[in-house]
Amino acid sequence: MSAQATLCSALAVPVARVAVQTAQKSVVAPSRMHMVQRRTTLRAVGAGAGRRAAVFVSAAAATEQAGLIAPHGGKLVNLMLPADKKQAAVDSCNKTIELSDRNACDVELLTVGGFSPLSGFMNKADYESVVEQHRLANGLLFGLPVVLDTDSDDISLGDRVLLTYNGQKLAVFTVESKWRPNKPLEAKNCYGTTSIEHPAVQMITMERGKYYMGGKVEGLELPTRVFPCASPADVRSTLPEGVDVLAFQCRNPIHRAHYELFIRALDAPNVSKDAVCLVHPTCGPTQDDDIPGIVRYRTYEVLAAEANNPRLRWAYLPYSMHMAGPREAIQHMIIRKNYGCTHFIIGRDMAGSKSSLTGEDFYGAYDAQEFATANAPELGMQTVPSLNITYTEEKGYVTADVAEREGLHKLNLSGTKAAAACNGHAAACASPC
Which EC numbers characterise this protein's activity in its record (predicted)? Predict the structure, then answer.
């Protein structure tokens, strides 16, 4: 049997048969010492200066009062209009835009507060500030621009635009700013390259229109999707108060190596003993060679049912991946903070991308991890570096240091290759590949 086939077989082992070997502990409040340590850390970071420190301290106070971490900026945004105001908003529109898959994801996350504190697409000042220094104009951290694009010369300031997706009326957008962006600068600062070999550079140059627009968004409906996407408020309502909540992000179908990774992360030294993990994969558009969201969703559904672990929570994120490495790590952390997470599991080459011509990585293996860890204190979060899990012929899944120390025969594939290797067997596997 080939090494790839052997690893595929290992990935397909039923999760229920393996171990949910982690102890199934009841969820209780962490010790007083743990909470005191967190408050001390927040105060130390918040002592930094000016407006950002004030925002951070305010968020920390709200965290303690609510028992859950405060949303980014201190308040969870909800842009959905009351039912009795929706028709009037639609009738006020003088233009219509049919959204792309990516833009529809942005509208949904704006509406439900996943992009809190944004109340709409970024205006020019916020966009330029994020491009230049990964911060909104008011100084608050933000990873990547969130803008609406168009090629239309007919859309003007003050226009009320009906945003539709597959014919569904999602939102009303008021045009407050419109400009021609410096896309090479955006590419260089946000993605680290101006080469269209990078999927996000290709996206902003070849998919997005020549104009960007910013302005408030008023929600009408959420997109109709095959996979349900719980809102931040919905997810927060399922989380236990006063304990750490780890976020696990993935853009591939789930397999055993992933499971081993996030289960073991619950035992990380900077995580409270009764922590829970939100398994929160992105199911929106990614790069062209990734497996479709609907396939990813089905693998997670199988795993959730089979694992049946009370320390796990499951939800799906309607987010469009940019493969932006360090910048995307910050974006993901902000989003997961809005969903109630205090910790973010981050692995080697998170949200990384390779040249489509040479196969070389655009980012260093630990660039995203280091950037996220450096900025985590300002967010009031912590990072949990994912363990280097490897599959061995002799002992199955072990950490790489154990495999090295004991001279075990390792079989390694990247997450994308592992998913691709097993994808043809997904329908037949008792567990997702």
Answer: 2.7.7.4
Q: Which residues of the chain have pLDDT under 70?
A: 1-66, 251-252, 255, 285-293, 349, 351-352, 386-391, 395, 397-403, 412-433
**Residue among 51, 176, 188 nearest 124 (CA):** 176
Measured CA to CA in angstroms, residue 320 lies from 205, 261, 303 at distances of 16, 23, 23
Closest CA to 291 of 202, 105, 420: 420
The tokens of 323 are what?
């493969």
User: Per the confidence metrics, is the pTM higher than 0.85?
Assistant: no
Per domain, the residue ranges of the chain are 3-30+228-389, 83-219
Which pLDDT score, from 0 to 100, does residue 115 have? 98
**How far apart, in Å, are the Cα atoms of 279 and each of 55, 122, 258, 312, 341?**
28, 28, 10, 7, 11
CATH code of the region 83-219:
3.10.400.10
What's the confidence (pLDDT) of residue 226?
A: 84
CB-based burial label for 261 (10 Å; 0-12, 13-18, 19+): buried
pLDDT value of position 388: 65
| Count of Cβ atoms closer than 10 Å to residue 28 Cβ | 12
What is the reported pLDDT for 129?
Answer: 98
3-30+228-389 CATH choice from 3.30.70.1790, 3.40.50.620, 3.20.20.370, 3.30.390.50: 3.40.50.620
pLDDT recorded at residue 360:
84
Residue type present at position 312: L
pLDDT for residue 39: 32
Q: Are 400 and 416 in contact (CB under 8 A)?
A: no
> pLDDT at position 292, please?
67
Burial class (CB in 10 A: 0-12, 13-18, 19+), 86: middle
